[in-house]
């Protein structure tokens, strides 16, 4: 069966997916990997990608592209999101990626990012949704909300410039964060999310990306991380509230040692958890389902699925 690969270069992490396309048109994963490189460190303040963030990301991108080729990928699609969109020197990163990894990185819009994340969720959750799907994609630099119907049509999408890395850099000035730090983040999120339209009745909310999957892994002590155990899980609003209190109150070194925690994500996970909790509150929902399959899966279908024009 033909193999294809996608690489999702985010503000906080880089994710690789190599998958086979079955004769029926489905994709089955052959290899999945993720590395936290923090491409977007400092972008909120400087509007530039740092040399350290670029070097760490380029090294992983080079490694992932080589691995995809060794596994027989006939095509590699690479997307970059919030940090690369915001940075004045984003073109420098794209040129270096082409030179070092031999790949063309597409800086996708927040709108396309939302559509790809929704497509990935729709493929896995539409059959169990009694009504509309509501997808929440929390990244390092931005957060996307997408409302769509069970047939797969997107009715509303919006990308907000709030993410786990961006909010940590902007508001957190101590370890652990103070009550004042937390209150400022909560107030900013409430003000940001107040423009969201109410979700349609009976909506099923599904969260994607590393913040949501990490929170579920920590809540249930899943260590080492097991995608099959995480995917399809549920985080209730009450569980989230207790988890936020715990994470905001622990110093960084203690957060790093929690079962289920990725140590490199521990510094930004309190802000990420606050985004999820405030989103659930803003939408008046009681729980959030968890998806381990995000943008990289949507990009795979978009570029290499049935009807795609790219090779």
From TrEMBL:
Ppx/GppA phosphatase N-terminal domain sequence ranges: 23-301
Domain of life: Bacteria
Pfam families: Ppx-GppA
Matching InterPro entries: ATPase_NBD, GppA/Ppx_hydrolase, Ppx_GppA_N
Protein name as catalogued: Ppx/GppA family phosphatase
